[in-house]
Each structure stands twice: as C-alpha cells, then as structure tokens.
Specification:
The protein is of the alpha+beta class and 879 residues long. 38% of the residues lie in helices and 26% in strands. The protein contains 22 helices and 38 strands.
C-alpha cells in the first residue's frame, strides 16, 4: 500500500488555501508564554490569545498542520497508548480557523466537501455519523436540512451528570471566557466491530473531525453571554484520517507506521509484528525525537519528567519483548528515514545530539532496571505462597521504573500470582497527589478582554496616562481607596510588564501629588499591562488621569543585566557551538540567571574565559541599538537569534550589539556595553541532564561582591598568619597537616578500640553460659561505644552488655541484650527501673537502649553496681 500521509497533508492545505485561508507555520511543541500547558496539545494553542480577544489575528481565515504532544486527555491515557487503535503521545492535527469570518454553516459545508467530494478525500457519505450538542439546534438543522444527514446518523449529546454545559460536545477554554458547542464527525469502520458513538467506546466508530463554534463568553456566575465576534476552531487527526483513506482499522496499520514497526522488529529480532509493545515503541520514538529536537532534556522536572517517562516506558516494552541490550537510541535514524523531506532536513541536523541524549538516558535506566529486577527476584524467592503484593509491585514501579507489565511477565514465567487490584489502588493515590501538586493550573481570566495598554517606556520613564480599569481581589471596581491593594490597567504606561524573562518595573502612579499608588510589580497579559501595588496616599477612580513614574534605579539595573545576558548568550554560542539553546532566563535588578543546553560540564577555566570575554566587551564600550523589522524580512537571516520564531508578531524588535550579536527581544537594554560596568559569575549549576545554569551580577552589585570577597581573603590571610600572595600555599600546607592528623587519629582510634575490647573480654562474667560485660570507660567519646558494641557482638554469642563513659559533664551509656537471651530480661525495663526519668534522656526498645544521664559519676557507679546485681540475680533465677 502507498504512503498516503504526505498526500493528505498537501490536499488539506490546498483545499483550505482555495477557500481563502492563509497557511500558517505550526508553532513549537513548547507553548510560549502559556503556563497552563506543558506542551502544545491542539492546533488552536498558538491562536489562544486571538480567541480570548487579547490580540487581533493577522488573518481572519487560517489553516495549519500542528505537531502535538498529549499525555492524558478526554479519551486518552498514557498507559493505554499502543494498546488502542487510535491514541498517541505524539500526533499531528489538521486545523482550519475562522476569526470573526465564517461560522457554522460554512465550517460544516467545508468539512463535508473535503471529506466526501470526489476531488478531495471521497469518503462514503453513509459511513459518516455526526454528533451535536443537544441545545445547538442550529447546527443540527444545518446537518439535517442543508447537508442532508439522516436523523439516524445524527446524534444529540447531552450534559454529563446533569451539569449544564458539561458535555463532550461543549468546549470551553477554562472556567470562564470563550466557549461554545461543538460538532464531531465519526467514520463507521463496519459492523464487524463493536462500538458506541455516544460515549466514544469500542473500535467501530472513529472520531475524525471536531468543529468548535466559539460563540459565548462564560462569566464567573456561569452565564453565557453571546460574543460579538464569533470564531471557529477545528481539528482533524492526521493519523486517523490517513487510516480511513488507506482503508485500515488502526492508526498503527497505516503505511508509515507499518514500516517503522517492521524496522523496529528487525532491529530487536522480534517476529510477531502485531505485538502491542512494538506499537508503544513506535509511538514513543516519535515523541522522544521531537521533544529533544525542541530542546527538552530528560530529567525529573515538568517537561523533562514527561520525556523521561516516555523513554522509560519504551525501554520497559523492549524488555517485555525480550531485549536486554540498548536499542532505543538506534531507532532515531530509522524514524528519520521514513519522514517527509522538510522534517528530514530539520531533524537530520540534530540527529547526533538526539541520539546521544537518548543513549545516555537509556544507559542510566538500564542500570536502574537491572537493579530493580534483582530486587524483584529476591522478593520472589522470599515469597513462600507464590504471591507478590500490590505494595511490592508499586515500590518496584515507583522506585526502579519497572513497568507492571514487565513485572507480570516475569511473575508468569516463575508461576507467581500478583495483586494487580491493590497495585492500582496505590497508583490512584499517587495520581491524586500529583493532581493536587500540579504546577500548571489555569488562572480564571478576570480582565476585560477589550482593554489595551500601550507601552512607551523604552525611552520615557514618566508618562501621562488614563486608568481604564481597577481590580481589587479579582473583581472590577470603580475606585481604589487609601490602604487598598489592587491592580490598575492604564491606556499608556512607562512600566515594563514582566515578559521574556525580564522582571516587571516598580515605581509610582501619581495624581496631583496627593494621590499615590505604589507599584510593587508589573505583569503583562495579552494586550494589557497590569500594575500591582497599594494605594499609599489618597484614592483613584476609573478614568482618572495620572503620571506613571518608573523607579529609574531599578529599571537601569535590570537593563544592565539584560544586556549582559545577551553578551553571555553569544559568547556561549561562539565558544561551544550554535547548537547551544537558551532554556530560560530571569533578569532582575539584583542578578541575572541564564539556563542553556550543553552536553558537558563547564570547567573552571571556561568560567574564567566567559567572565574575561564579557568584561573585555564591557570595557570596549560597544554600542547597543534596537530596531524593528517585519518578521518576513528576517526569517532567513542566520545571524539573528530568535528564541521563539513561531510566536512573534508581524513586526519584531531586534537588539543589536555592534559586531557581536543580533537577537529578537522586547526587553529593556543599556545603550552601550560600558554601562554594564562589571560582570561576575557567582554560581554555576548543572540543573538537569544536559541543562546548565549560570548566575551572574553586574555593575555596583558586582563591585560590592568583589570588595566583600577581598575582605574575606584578607581575614583568612590574617587567620593563617600569612600574606595574600602565599595564602593558597599556606592553606594547602595546613590541609596536608590536617589530613595527617586525621590519619593518626584513625590509627589511634583502632588501637584504642582493639585495646579496650581485650580489656572488656578479659573482664567478662560467664554465668550459665551467658556472657555479661558491665564496664565504665574513662573519658571516651560516646561515638566509640557503638564501635565497641559491634566488635564485641561479633566475638561473643549470648551476651548482655552495658558500656558507659563520662563525656562533657554527662554520663553516656549503651545497653544491649542479644536476641538469643531469655525474653524475660528486658533492657528498656531495667533502665527505667533504675534511672530517674527527670535526669535521663533515653531511647530504644526491649533489647537495646542508649542515652545520657545528667548525674555525678559517684551516683552513677552506685546505679551501675545496682544494675549489675539485678542482672546476675535475674539470670540465676531464670536458669
């Protein structure tokens, strides 16, 4: 069978291009400036701000093909990927969008024409079934009366659990904001399969296209207010429509996947190409390749953690198939061979980097999994009733990453039963904890979507502005009074709103010097800039005019640190290669933090080189300028660094450091490098596998840091009674002396223990085949008591030991009764009987007790003698 996937891509774009849609490049898999998402999981993600009304779209009709990562979701579960016919962690979404242009009728007609017309996909009309939200009769009538869908092929979908608008056919972005009904198109694969459209169960009906009509704004009280500008958001899974056109009943049977699966089977020598584990591996190699290509590194945080889970699940399924060797990294070249030319060019440049990252992760996990299997085998040997508990399975899964399927396979081979039900209970507890601790939560949109703030603060630090909205405790107000904290939105402002890693400005909003609002922070959200602070004098009303005054010292320090960040970025790229990718930054008035990808660790001479190079550029007084250009004009300019090329507007701002770098940036900067003053790296960290972090300071903060370091050096030199020139030599000499003293101390300790043990053994009492040692050791460090105890226990069998010493004005003791002594002698009971609770601090159990006593030595000798007599009498009676 021919590979149809490329043809379908072209046909989809061509169809909507003919319908006057602008073809837009897909966005990154990593959502830009959207903390509600780990990954891009739908075609509409990059247009979110258009749907919310924060930005005006550049075109009213758009068509895209978007790569997506989806872990979980409405009909999806990570652990089921590979075991169903149609779910993936990575997939491509075909989508057409209308922003205030066409609506329900045209959206439905376009979908029907593309799917059924002989010029296009030419699907059989009788095979198509449609779902509609039960209150959306307008859509129902379009399908029935205008398209001609019979009522038996039209299904109304109601709300779940009698909750209004809680339906698979009613879409909403979050608790409030844009929302609307949807209509879904299903394809009937035939009555030889089981399935139900209403709950999307079984394999007979496959959902191929979802069309969302964004026509309402949902308020905080749950009311639906009709939008003046209505939009359409659609999505059709590329793999799903390909399976239908290639006439197969599973995404994993399409030509593309069959080739990949066959090659994987050949690589690991598996004959059964229908094994579900091969599907898992085929899906997961796609996700892994694209995530690493986007700069994600496997680690234990956020996106890196998800990537690690994907890689490890694939490796587990390799084990299930019987391979114990490294195999997953070898699949990178296989996958890239079967993709289209554009993707091949993009990935081929990164093939060595991707392969290396996967291989390193695979090596690490193989070591962990081997350790886990050893532990599993120990647990199985201990199992007398051929049974493994759910708690044991969860421990092996959670600690060593052994998949339940792999554990089950090993248990089946060894004829061991497992408690899967109990394991699932532990998994559910973990899932609930994970949901509570999630780092990506939606914030309810409280701001007026029609508000627009203009930033004019690059050169103006005082601006005459108008208050267009006031918010107190997330509620819009007409006024803010003295002492109240709130958020103020201005039409024009000199305050920079936090974005691009740069912290927001602080300062004051003033009216007539009698009404002052102190700004603690400034945030940017879509088209608005939010001034967060407190009314410290007088009051403000909505529509008041005032002056926005930026704290110039704070702003200047941020600008110095931002420009220094650009210098750091270009030097890292020049020294280590242009594959270096910025993975995040934080620019404050006190310091800068820069995260970047690098496969090896920086050495001390690297840090020195970077510092020196940046300071050289600072002292060279290099000009820093900014200019704007259309994004189309710079797309092919390789000398311009663009961190998020798919999320910039049509007009972009470029920061140019003469002769060094050009970088797309909206942040604030100094006008020449000399204004940075001084640059010092204060910290270097390896924060994840392949991701490094540099902390640095500039200007007067860097100077104060150097002065403090110099003071500390002088103090240390005085302490060692030397001058600064010979300080290091002196420290090394003292360290050698200290190491020698430590060695001598260890030897002395061993000698002391050996000598003391001989004394203790020679003075032991042997009574009824029981060894009794009760001794007070002169001025001995209490730590040694444990050493002595362990040595004695190795030499004697049945033994009762009380060791004690006076140390730093207290009596320390340890009392041990070996387990083979009669149970009627209880260490804890004996201590409690003979020691006053008010003066002793003890801990222990029946056969071992240790602690300290705040009494004089003579009284303790008396108590020790009393305990000795008690023990001897007790043994005589028991024997």
């Amino acid at each position: 069978m021919d590979n149809k996937i490329e043809e379908i891509r072209k046909v989809f774009l061509e169809f909507f291009n003919k319908k006057k849609h602008r073809i837009i490049k897909e966005s990154s898999l990593i959502p830009y400036n959207d903390q509600s998402l780990l990954f891009t999981n739908a075609g509409m993600n990059q247009f979110k701000e258009y749907f919310l009304g924060y930005k005006k779209p550049p075109y009213s009709r758009i068509v895209t093909i978007q790569k997506c990562i989806r872990m979980g979701g409405k009909h999806n579960d990570f652990n089921n990927v590979g075991f169903t016919n149609r779910h993936h962690t990575f997939f491509e979404m075909l989508g057409n969008f209308s922003f205030g242009d066409y609506f329900k009728k045209k959206a439905i007609f376009y979908a029907w024409e593309l799917l059924t017309n002989s010029k296009w996909f030419n699907l059989k009309k009788k095979k198509l079934f449609i779902t509609v939200y039960y209150q959306d009769m307008e859509t129902y009538n379009i399908w029935h009366n205008l398209i001609g869908i019979s009522k038996k092929n039209l299904i109304l979908i109601k709300d779940k659990n009698n909750q209004k608008y809680n339906s698979d056919n009613f879409w909403q972005m979050s608790e409030t904001g844009p929302c609307g009904p949807s209509t879904e198109i299903f394809y009937d694969l035939g009555d030889h399969l089981q399935g139900n459209i209403k709950n999307n169960s079984g394999n007979r009906f496959i959902e191929i296209w979802n069309i969302v009509f964004i026509q309402f704004n949902r308020t905080l009280d749950g009311k639906l207010i009709p939008l003046l500008i209505k939009s359409v958001d659609t999505g059709m899974g590329l793999e799903r429509i390909t399976s239908i056109i290639e006439k197969v009943d599973s995404n994993y049977k399409i030509y593309f996947f069959k080739k990949i699966i066959q090659k994987i089977a050949d690589k690991i020598n598996i004959k059964n190409i229908n094994h579900n584990s091969l599907k898992v591996i085929a899906d997961h190699i796609r996700s892994t390749i694209y995530l690493i290509a986007e700069g994600i590194i496997p680690n234990n945080e956020k996106r890196g953690y998800v990537l690690r889970k994907i890689i490890r699940r694939a490796i587990n399924h390799g084990r299930i198939l019987g391979t114990k060797e490294l195999f997953f990294y070898k699949l990178v070249k296989i996958y890239i061979k079967y993709i289209n030319n554009n993707e091949k060019i993009f990935l081929h440049k990164k093939i060595e980097y991707i392969t290396k990252i996967i291989k390193n992760e695979e090596k690490k996990f193989n070591q962990i999994i081997n350790l886990g299997i050893k532990l599993l085998n120990k647990e199985l040997k201990k199992s007398e009733d051929n049974y493994l508990t759910g708690k044991q399975i969860f421990y092996l899964y959670d600690t060593f990453g052994l998949s339940p399927d792999l554990i089950e396979n090993i248990c089946i081979e060894k004829n061991i039963n497992i408690n899967k039900k109990e394991f699932l209970k532990y998994m559910e507890i973990q899932r609930q904890k994970s949901q509570k601790n999630t780092l990506f939560k939606h914030k309810i949109n409280i701001y007026d979507k029609n508000d627009i703030s203009k930033f004019n603060g690059y050169d103006n630090f005082i601006t005459y502005s108008k208050i267009i909205n006031i918010y107190i405790n997330n509620i819009a107000k007409q006024k803010i009074d003295l002492g109240e904290q709130g958020e103020i939105i201005l039409n024009t402002t000199s305050f920079y709103g936090e974005s691009g890693g740069q912290k927001g400005d602080i300062g004051f909003l003033e009216k007539d010097k009698k009404n002052i609002f102190q700004v603690y922070d400034t945030k940017k959200k879509g088209n608005i800039i939010i001034h967060i602070g407190k009314m410290i004098l007088g009051s403000f009303k909505k529509n008041d005019y005032l002056y926005s005054k930026v704290d110039l010292i704070h702003r200047n320090m941020i600008s110095k640190n931002h420009s220094a960040t650009h210098l750091l970025h270009i030097i890292l790229r020049n020294k280590f290669g242009t594959y270096i990718q910025q993975k995040g930054s934080l620019i404050t008035n006190k310091y800068l933090r820069f995260d970047f990808t690098l496969n090896h660790s920086l050495k001390e001479n690297d840090i020195t080189y970077i510092e020196k190079k940046i300071n050289d550029y600072i002292f060279d007084n290099i000009s820093i300028k900014t200019y704007t250009k259309k994004i189309e004009e710079i797309k092919n300019q390789k000398d311009i660094i663009a961190l998020f090329p798919n999320k910039y507007s049509s007009l972009v701002r470029i920061v140019k450091i003469d002769g060094l770098s050009q970088e797309l940036c909206v942040g604030t900067h100094v006008t020449n490098t000399s204004k940075i003053g001084l640059f010092i790296i204060t910290k270097y960290l390896n924060i994840a596998n392949g991701i490094k972090r540099i902390h640095a300071i500039t200007h007067n903060i860097a100077l104060k840091y150097m002065q403090k370091q110099n003071t500390n050096i002088k103090y240390i030199a005085n302490f060692f009674n030397t001058n600064e020139e010979f300080l290091i030599k002196n420290i090394i000499s003292n360290k050698k002396k200290n190491d020698l003293l430590k060695k001598n101390f260890q030897e002395l300790k061993q000698y002391f223990i050996s000598k003391e043990i001989n004394i203790l053994l020679n003075n032991k009492i042997l009574l009824h085949k029981k060894n009794i040692i009760i001794s007070n050791i002169y001025n001995c460090n209490p730590i040694f008591l444990n050493f002595l105890l362990k040595k004695i226990l190795k030499k004697l069998n049945k033994v009762i030991i009380i060791l004690s010493t006076k140390w730093e004005k207290k009596i320390f003791f340890i009392f041990k009764i070996s387990q083979n002594i009669n149970n009627n002698i209880n260490a804890l009971d004996i201590i409690k009987r003979n020691l006053d609770k008010n003066v002793c601090n003890i801990n222990g159990c029946d056969n071992i007790v240790q602690g300290n006593i705040d009494i004089n030595i003579d009284k303790y000798y008396f108590i020790l003698s009393k305990i000795r007599t008690y023990i001897l009498n007790k043994i005589n009676k028991l024997s």
